[in-house]
Specification:
Length: 483
């Protein structure tokens, strides 16, 4: 087994891991970052890319008066999950430092659009990255390499090394074999959540979540497992964001993700958004809305039904349909409704999907931009043929709908999948991001940031998980560098 010595070893190459490594690294502080996947990115790279922050330069430029105190207070406007730990000290830490984090990211070449409003926030605080979330990974990784961070992909942490009661390193496997990475100052777990960790989900959240797929299939809770083996405690382990119902993105949307995530491209996109007529931007905006976001459950309130590949209705759509979709053949379903329901979803306030503060998508947008998933027919039988499901079964399901289907045309949207977006169970940590055991004692030499080190802070709404990932990583890295 080969051995390499560093001051800090970061486990996980997503946004929080890269932020930790960059904030810590200097000519005097040697940092290694290991990532089990072939590429850096983690859940950050798959995200929409918004950061919710207060007191930012972009807010001031837009004439928005805001403060960390107002941001702190607005957390209470969101419903608090039942049985949740609510760490107000970490909430305070977040709101006090997230603006500095945003400005730090901007200094690295990351471009933002906004701020945009999102209810129930009382001020516009959502800052959206341009051209897409890949810019975070591109710019942070480039800065890390320039600062000498030893980045190793396809390298999986297999265990933490303890000596005299202190974590002193990580044993890791890579294509070249097993190695020991020693860490003089500490090991930082930035491995994300456990949304794809079947056993952890079963233990912490319950068996019904363990059967659901995850948006990020490699978020298996590796850091949680490594720390728990040393007695670490997980707070809010029962909190799961999702499952959410979503359509797969069309192939035509892939070109947006392929835009180079550089500052120049981000600035060009921001200029286009500010200067081009709205009509010129509609195709991209509507494609985004119909590709990345979940359809509204208001469809079911209006009388739409969910059917499977056999054309059979399989759930109470107004209860918890997202839990029942994965059990169906192919792990998906179809939303079916008639023209009367469809007509409702052509005008505000009945939209099919939305990006808060940006735009709304209606049925006509799905008909235009998502022909791959939107089927329309004048009869139920012809709709069944277009869907590839048995005609008799679909007719029976439609006849038994809560509101009888009677007005053509008839519509089917799908296939529709169900995914867990993220989990909120994080390792208990101190304000210095030291990992705590169940008895409240510190595990010397072990730290956690991002979703792995969420520490009981609740992060409601859009943009606050990502804000926490970068902020906690940056503060953790700065603190370790000073040791």
């Amino acid at each position: 087994m080969s051995t390499a010595a560093f001051d800090i070893v970061v486990v996980g190459g997503g946004g929080s891991g890269l932020a930790t490594a960059l904030a810590a690294a200097s000519p005097e502080v040697r940092v290694a970052l290991i990532e089990k996947n072939p590429k850096l990115g983690g859940t950050t790279g798959l995200s929409i890319g918004s950061i919710t922050a207060s007191g930012t330069s972009l807010q001031r430029s837009a004439g928005v008066e805001d403060s960390p105190d107002a941001h702190f207070a607005d957390f209470d406007l969101f419903a608090k999950p039942e049985g949740a730990v609510d760490n107000l000290a970490f909430r305070r830490l977040y709101v006090d430092h997230v603006a500095d984090t945003l400005h730090w990211l901007m200094s690295l070449g990351i471009v933002f659009h906004g701020p945009s409003p999102e209810a129930p926030h009382t001020r516009p605080r959502m800052h959206n990255v341009l051209p897409h979330a890949g810019a975070y990974i591109y710019c942070l990784a480039k800065a890390c390499r320039a600062r000498g961070v030893d980045i190793r992909v396809e390298t999986t942490a297999r265990g933490l090394v303890e000596e005299s009661g202190r974590v002193t390193g990580v044993e890791a496997d890579s294509p070249s074999g097993r190695s020991l990475l020693r860490a003089r100052k500490g090991v930082v777990l930035t491995t994300g959540d456990y949304s794809a960790g079947t056993e952890l989900l079963r233990q912490l959240a319950g068996a019904r979540y363990a059967a659901i797929g995850a948006l990020n299939t490699t978020s298996t809770g590796d850091g949680h497992a490594l720390a728990r083996a040393l007695g670490a405690q997980v707070l809010n382990g029962h909190l799961v964001e999702g499952p959410q119902m979503r359509f797969a993105a069309p192939r035509e949307f892939n070109w947006v993700k392929q835009l180079p995530p550089s500052r120049l491209v981000g600035q060009a996109v921001r200029f286009a958004m500010a200067t081009l007529p709205q009509a010129a931007l509609q195709q991209v905006i509507k494609m985004y809305l119909t590709a990345n976001l979940q359809p509204t459950t208001r469809l079911f309130d209006a009388g739409a039904i969910l059917v499977n590949r056999q054309g059979m209705r399989f759930t109470d759509e107004r209860a918890s349909p997202a839990f029942d979709i994965p059990a169906q053949e192919g792990g998906h379903g179809f939303i079916v409704f008639d023209g009367a329901i469809g007509a409702r979803f052509e005008h505000w306030p009945d939209f099919l999907s939305t990006a808060p503060g940006i735009a709304y998508a209606y049925l006509s947008d799905y008909r235009r931009y998502r022909r791959d998933i939107c089927r329309e027919a004048q009869t139920i039988a012809s709709l069944a043929r277009a869907m590839g499901v048995p005609e008799d079964a679909l007719a029976t399901s439609a006849a038994a709908a809560p509101t009888a289907f009677s007005r053509p045309p008839y519509y089917a949207l799908g296939p529709l999948y169900s995914w867990i977006m993220t989990t909120d169970g994080g390792l208990a940590v101190t304000p210095k991001f030291e990992v705590l055991r169940g008895d409240g004692s510190v595990i010397p030499g072990l730290y956690a940031a991002g979703l792995a080190g969420q520490g009981g802070v609740l992060l409601p709404g859009h943009g606050q998980h990502l804000g926490w990932a970068f902020t906690s990583g940056r503060l953790c890295g700065l603190g370790l560098a000073r040791l």
